[in-house]
Amino acid sequence: MTSPSAAPSASEAPLSADGTARLATALDLEHQAVYAYGVLGPYLSGSLRTSARTAEETHRTRRDKIEALLGDAAPTGAAGYALPQPVKDKASALALAALVEDGVTTAYRAALAATSGGNRKIVLDAMIDAANRAAAWRRAAGTTPGTVSFPGRPA
């Protein structure tokens, strides 16, 4: 008796041109997130610094996963990025962390409609993870409201 061959993974489904472009945007924001956490991390201490390190590692892992998915279409990271706001203390570091996660959430939300199958699950998981992390950073900063309606939705 022969065993059936394994079906191709749903995440290996080809991406449309739109899906590739939107994932490339999300990948660029992952590069920026890794950079931003490197800048803001030293302004945090204790459990907040641990959370920042964990977030940076999550973004590195996700960046690598999306790079592998996009292959030759993956944009390369820059040596540095202009931050949307200066970081000079704990409060500004927490605000930047929430802003970074909101940007990542928005990029992955935009990619949802252009992906399917396993690729869409990757995108949805990334969007939810970033939205939850943004809410956690806002709570840590004492910002209210701590959550936003429809995370990732353009204003």
TrEMBL record:
Residue ranges annotated for the DUF4439 domain, each copy included: 23-154
InterPro entries to which the protein is assigned, alphabetical: DUF4439, Ferritin-like, Ferritin-like_SF
Family annotation (Pfam families): DUF4439 (PF14530)
Record protein name field: Ferritin-like domain-containing protein
Biological source species: Hamadaea flava
